[in-house]
C-alpha cells in the first residue's frame, strides 16, 4: 500500500490541499509567536515581588507596586463563577439528556443555552449592572449615601461570569451523558433502581470527566474575560471590602482581575506601565494555558469507561 | 482445545450435548491456560429430566400482545416460566423474543410507543400490581453487552443491595451477600483479591459473569438473559452456559438466544417465536427432535433464520 500520489489530482484539489497545509502552519506560527513574545516579555519584566505586592495608585512606576490584588481577584472570580455555574449547568444537561419532555420546552432550553453562549460579555455585563443596581439586590453590593445601589461587586461579576461558563458546562456534561449507551441505563433500571437513583449513582459518576472538562473550559473563559470585570467588578486597583466579615465582605466589595489590570496598565488604559502589563499578561497566559492542558488531560483519561455499543 | 469448542454442525435428531462437562469430582479442565473453571461443580446434564413433571411455576404469560406504535411485536403469547428449568426463546431476528423478555420485568415500558395487552403474573400476582422497582428486584436481567457500571467490582454487585432511601448500609454489612453472589456467578476466586478494582478492567467474559452476579445479588426469583453470550468468546460462553445450568435450581431462567446450539445445550424447554407469534413450545428434545410445526422444523434444521 503506497501513499496516494497527489500528482494525479485535479489542480483545484491540489490548491485546496496546499491551502489546508498553509492554514495549519500559519496557526502554529501565530500561536508560537504569541507564546514566545509573551515569554520573552514576561521573563524580561516579571519579578517575583510583583506577585506578592499590592498595587498602589502612584504615577511613579517604582512605587506603584505589583499585582497581588488582581491575581487574587482572578482566582476569586473564577472560583465564584464556576461554583455558581456547576449546579445549574449539570442540572440543565441532565434534564436535556434524560428528560427533555415536553419537546418544545427542551428546544426552548437548548436555544436559551445557545443564546447565553452567543451573547457578547459586554452585553451580559451591562445587563448584570441593571439587575444588580436594583434595590432587591442591594445586599450583593453596597448602597451609596444617596440611596443608589452600586451594583458592582464580586457577587455581581461572579453571577454574570457563571453565565459565561454555563453553556460550556452544559455542553460537555450533556455530551458525556449521551455517550453512555442505553443498555447501561437499562441495566440499572433492571436492578430495580429508579431513574433518579440511576442518574445519581451511575450516570453522573460516569459523566464526571465531562463535567470537569466543561468546568475547566469555563474557568479559562472567566479568567480571560475583561468586559464584565471592568463594568461589574468595579476594576478598583485593590480589593476593597464592603461591610464586615472575612469572606462575605470581600465578595460584596469590588476588585480587579489580571485582565483589567493589563488593560489599565497598557497604553490603551489610563495607566502607562507597559512593563507591568506584560508581566501580568504573561501570568494570565500561564493560568489559561494550564487550564487548557488540564482539559486535555481530563478528556484523555475519559476514554476509560468504554462499553461496546 | 478441540473439546472446548463445539463443532459447528447441523443439529441432528438426538445429537449428543456439545458442552463437555467433567464428571463429578474430576478436576475442572483448564484448557491449558491456567484459568480453572473455579467453583463450578459439574452441572448434571439431566436430559432424562427434561420431559419430567414441570417445576414450580414462577411467572405466567397469558395472551400477551405488544405493539410498538401500531406495529405488532408480540402477538397472543401464552407461556409458563418455571423454576428448576431453563426456558430458551429462539427465533430469527425481529421475531419478538427480546420484547417478550423485556415485558417480564416491564422494561418494555421504557419505550414510549409500546402498548401491551394481556396478563403477566408472578407467583399469581399481576406484575402491573407490583411496584415496578420491586418487580425488577424479583425479575432480574442480564444484557447482550456486558455492562458493568464504572465503579469497583464490589460496588457493582452491591449496587442492587444498597437501598435507595437515606440509610446507607455499611460495606461490611453487604460483604457476605456480595461474596455469595460472586460465588454463585463463579467469579469469586478470580476477583477476591481485586474487589476494589474498577469492574471495567475485567475481561469481557468476566464482566458478563459480574453482571450475572450483580443480577443475582438481590436474590431474584427469575433471571432474564438476553443473548448473554453473543459478545463473548467460546471459552467465556462455555463458562456462562455451565453457570446457567447450575442456576436453574435456584431461579427460573429465561434465555433469549440466536444460537440454536446454545439453546439445545442449556435449555430444558424451548419456545420458538416467529413474526411475533409463539409457534411452538415444548421440551428441548421435542422442539429439536420432533417439532410439530413445519416452521419450527424448517428453523431448527437451518432452512431459514
Structure description:
The complex is a heterodimer of chains A (309) and B (305). Chain A is an all-alpha fold and 309 residues long. Chain A is built from twelve helices and no strands. Chain B has 305 residues and is α/β, with parallel strands linked by helices. Chain B contains ten helices and ten strands. In chain B, strands 6-7-8-3-9-10 form a six-stranded mixed sheet, with helices on both faces. In chain B, a hairpin with a 2-residue loop joins β9 and β10 (277-283). The longest helix of chain B is centred in the middle third of the chain and has 14 residues, at 171-184. The model of chain B is unreliable at 1-44 (pLDDT under 50). The A-B interface holds A 181, 183-184, 186-194, 197, 201-202, 205-206, 304-309 and B 105, 107, 110, 133-137, 140-141, 143-147, 149-151, 159-160, 164, 198, 200, 211, 214-215, 218, 224, 231.
Helix and strand arrangement:
The complex is a heterodimer of chains A (309) and B (305).
Chain A: H1 11-45, H2 48-52, H3 68-99, H4 103-118, H5 121-132, H6 154-178, H7 182-190, H8 195-224, H9 227-232, H10 246-252, H11 258-265, H12 274-301
Chain B: E1 57-68, E2 71-82, E3 86-90, H1 97-104, E4 114-122, E5 125-126, H2 132-138, E6 139-142, H3 153-158, H4 171-184, H5 188-191, H6 204-216, E7 222-226, H7 234-247, E8 252-256, H8 260-266, E9 269-274, E10 277-283, H9 284-289, H10 294-300
Parallel strand pairs in B: 3-8, 3-9, 6-7, 7-8
Antiparallel strand pairs in B: 1-2, 1-4, 4-5, 9-10
Helix pairs in contact in B: 4-6, 6-7
